[in-house]
Fold this sequence. Notes:
The complex is a heterodimer.
Chain A: E1 3-8, H1 16-29, E2 34-38, H2 46-49, H3 60-64, H4 70-73, E3 75-76, E4 83-86, H5 99-112, E5 115-119, H6 126-132, E6 137-142, H7 146-161, E7 168-174, H8 176-181, H9 187-194, E8 197-203, H10 206-214, H11 225-237, H12 253-260
Parallel strand pairs in A: 1-5, 1-6, 2-4, 2-5, 6-7, 7-8
Antiparallel strand pairs in A: 3-4
Helix pairs in contact in A: 1-11, 5-6
Chain B: E1 2-3, E2 7-12, E3 15-20, H1 26-44, E4 48-52, H2 60-72, E5 76-80, H3 94-106, E6 113-116, E7 125-128, E8 131-134, E9 143-146, E10 150-156, E11 159-162, E12 172-177, E13 181-184, E14 187-190, E15 200-205, E16 208-213
Parallel strand pairs in B: 3-4, 4-5, 6-8, 7-9, 8-10, 9-11, 10-12, 11-13
Antiparallel strand pairs in B: 1-2, 2-3, 12-15, 13-14, 15-16
Amino acid sequence: MGEIIVVTSGKGGVGKTTTSANIGTGLASAGHKVVLVDTDIGLRNLDVVMGLENRIVYDLVDVTSGNCRLKQALIKDKRFTNLFLLPAAQTKDKTAVNPEQMAKLAQELKEEFDFAIIDCPAGIEQGFRNAIAGADRAVVVCTPEVSAVRDADRIIGLLEAAELRNPKLIINRIRPEMVKRGDMMDISDILDILAIDLIGVVPEDESIVISTNKGEPAVMDQGSKAGEAYRRITRRIKGEEVPLMALDVPVGIMDRLKRLVGLR
Amino acid sequence: MTRTEHLALKGTRDGLILYLDPAAEFGLLINELSQLLEKSVEFLKGAVIRCYAGKKEYTEDEHAVLAATLGQYQLELAGWLTEEEVYVPGKSQYAAVDKETRHLEDGMVEGSCLFVERTLRSGKSVQFEGHVVVLGDVNPGAEIIATGNIAVLGSLRGVAHAGATGDRKATVSAYHLAPTQLRIADLVTRAPDEEGRGPEIAKIKEDQLIVEAAGMSGWRGKTR
């Protein structure tokens, strides 16, 4: 029996889709049978990030409305034979699916897969309710911005109201040098407000933009810092205890001198 | 209140007080006291009584007789009151003034109360006719509207409106008071710019919404 994990945030553009793609790919590379489900009907992206856009024939709405069987709509990944994508419909909107249908679909996916990663749309309306309908666990993505933290807080409240207890937090796009200067919220500021378990911190990384455009998740890029962060998150999702990645700022010669003479 | 010709027994906020007529003869007083207690002994049993006789001083023997008389009726003589401690009509406003200020400081102390046993996250709104106590935080984007006081056992970062129906005696208190906006009755303010440390309480004083450290000296000044 598999597990359904919903990746959500409330606010748009914080990295839900990137996180879904990377966690899914990471779990698949560890040998698990994984399906990625895009529930952002009308604004689908996950297929693009995975580089699978040109293989879509059937989609989520076709499955829930009975136009096709689940197996027909699942797209096999380019890199891993144990990774699949269930894409969203682009020509419909969120009302094309209801939470009951999603809960039923989740049951079907659980029997087939070890993990189903559900990419939730931004917002708190029907798209969100659809996405969390069948979920067992939730991962909340948040960037170190006040607006994103506000929305994450609201989302956590809604998840708790929907009996999805103990959601886990991923802090995305953190810039250590800005935190150090005091220009960006740091991890403890965010945890102070949200008060949930942290499952990972992903640094801002240009390689994410590159990998997204190429359709190859950064988690497979050994040289990428963000990729390393996602590899650690993947292991934590499997239940391993992994320390947080050190987010050190490169130390300049002046800093070293100052430290040497005890100025800091 | 119960009285005889030379005695009066009054119940006050601080317990029972027996007033003795300083001009009366001691034997007469004891007789009257016995009669008085005979009538009301069941009601008074076990009480503690303090006595007042103006400037008159009784001998140790008389004191012992008085204590024994009271003792017969299971009453305990707890001591004598001085002139300052007793309210004498027309003589001093002391007691009355004291009562008035105490009442103001007490604010709203009674009434129905709602306990919220979790953190209020963004988008949550709690509205209640009475006092609200939150066992957790109130995050930005959450609001509490109460006709009475609001107390938060955690960080108050959202919006709080105490005394929402216009009661200016209402207060807002929190372990960490940093609200988005604070309202009491018809007054509105933003959070103070400097971060508060330790528990604080917001109230209205002379038409101003003020924030002061809550009276827990042990916590005050402790850095967070």
